[in-house]
Amino acid sequence: MTKHRICTIPDCGRKHKARGFCLLHYERFKQHGDPLFTLTAANGEPARFLAEALSYTGDDCLNWPFNRSQKGYAQIWQDGRQTLAARRVCLLAHGPPPTPEHEAAHSCGNGHDGCIAPGHLRWATHAENIADKQLHKLRRI
């Protein structure tokens, strides 16, 4: 009778999948670089940073040092799903959007660099936000 290898994480006891880990720990390792990653642990620092960002009054961008979308926009976990951190900051700093369709627009043009400075954010329609993006691109040329 052959004995199956087990996960190398102490007290796990699940069947080995790859790199010494069970499927659960291997998936966490692949996605987060840490087989012991949990959302509770991950939310601590980003939540603290977000809370402190609300009191930021500087003119420079305040760039999000955590998870970002493929296009560079800051993301945070909220209610069990990823959401844009700039939208969360805009909501907390400026109140609810006029309509659910309004977007958090960046006056600095650096949303794609992860800026979440409250003074750089405002509610805008999608058309206004697109116009802003075009204007920012022209300023960079």
Q: Could you characterize the architecture of this molecule?
A:
A hairpin with a 2-residue loop joins strand 1 and strand 2 (81-84). The termini are far apart. The protein has 141 residues and is an alpha+beta fold. The model has no long low-confidence stretch (mean pLDDT 87). It contains four helices and four strands, in the order H-H-E-E-H-E-E-H. The protein has helices at residues 23-32, 39-53, 85-94, 126-140, and strands spanning 75-78, 81-84, 103-106, 121-124. The protein has two domains: 1-37, no CATH class; 40-140, Homing Intron 3 (I-Ppo) Encoded Endonuclease, Chain A, CATH 3.90.75. The protein has a two-stranded antiparallel ribbon.
Describe the structure concisely for a colleague.
With 141 residues, the chain is of the alpha+beta class.
Overview features:
141 residues; alpha+beta; Homing Intron 3 (I-Ppo) Encoded Endonuclease, Chain A; 2 domains; two-stranded antiparallel sheet; 4 helices; 35% helix; elongated
Based on Cα principal axes, name the global outline.
elongated
Helix content: 25-40%
Q: Can you tell me the CATH topology of the largest domain?
A: Homing Intron 3 (I-Ppo) Encoded Endonuclease, Chain A
Rg from Cα: 20 Å
The percent range for strand residues is 5-15%
Order of helices and strands: HHEEHEEH
CATH class of the largest domain: Alpha Beta
Class inferred from helices and paired strands: alpha+beta
DSSP summary, beta strand count:
4
Number of domains: 2
Report the uncertain regions: none
